[in-house]
Design a protein that fits this description.
The chain is built from no helices and 14 strands. The strands form three sheets. It has a five-stranded mixed beta sheet with strand order 2-4-11-6-9, with no helix packed on it. A five-stranded mixed beta sheet has the order 3-5-10-7-8, with no helix packed on it. Strands 1-14-13-12 form a four-stranded antiparallel beta sheet, with no helix packed on it. With 171 residues, it is mostly beta strands. The chain is globular.
Length: 171
């Protein structure tokens, strides 16, 4: 059986952002994803980047840092519980990778701010939302134009749904 992992996404860069420059606000509506800033080289000076994570049905969001290196006390990774900066949940700076943290809120805004001098390697963070997510229909067909096969969803949710190759469709 052929297995394919499907990701349905709504953000500018899909479920994984690897931007070296930023747009005003990038939205993430999936229940899991990765945000990376400063991929192979260090991030750039004097940047403000913001990421709005708000999966439908989420009740909590967990952040796991796989990379973290910013200019200590000058460049910051901040986490808020709203778009309006009303409640700062966490703030990180420096070269110590933060521990995995769970925020018991349905949405978070992450902002990354770098000052006008000195950069570092940046960050990579995986987010996973917990909650009551919309279910997929019991089965439906997806046409993958490059493979020309019909796939039927057999389990999963909107992100990472496992697709099984339909045996009735030939190569």
């Amino acid at each position: 059986m052929l297995r394919v992992y499907a990701r349905l996404f709504d953000s500018k860069f899909g479920p994984s952002c690897t931007a070296t420059s930023c747009v005003a606000l990038e939205e993430y509506k999936n229940n899991t994803g990765t945000i990376t800033h400063g991929r192979e080289a260090s991030y750039v000076n004097d940047k403000y980047c913001s990421y709005w994570i708000h999966p439908t049905g989420a009740t909590a969001i967990t952040l796991t840092f796989t990379k973290f290196a910013t200019e200590a006390n000058y460049d910051f990774f901040n986490v808020y519980d709203s778009l309006t900066h009303e409640n700062l949940l966490a703030s990180y700076s420096g070269n110590t990778r933060p521990a995995t943290v769970t925020f018991s809120v349905p949405a978070i805004k992450i902002e990354f701010i770098s000052d006008e001098s000195t950069t570092d390697a940046g960050f990579s963070v995986v987010y996973v939302a917990a909650g009551n997510f919309p279910s997929l229909p019991p089965a439906f067909s997806v046409n993958l134009y490059s493979f020309r096969h019909r796939y039927t969803v057999t389990s999963g949710s909107l992100v990472g749904a496992v697709l099984a190759r339909d045996p009735d469709v030939g190569d």
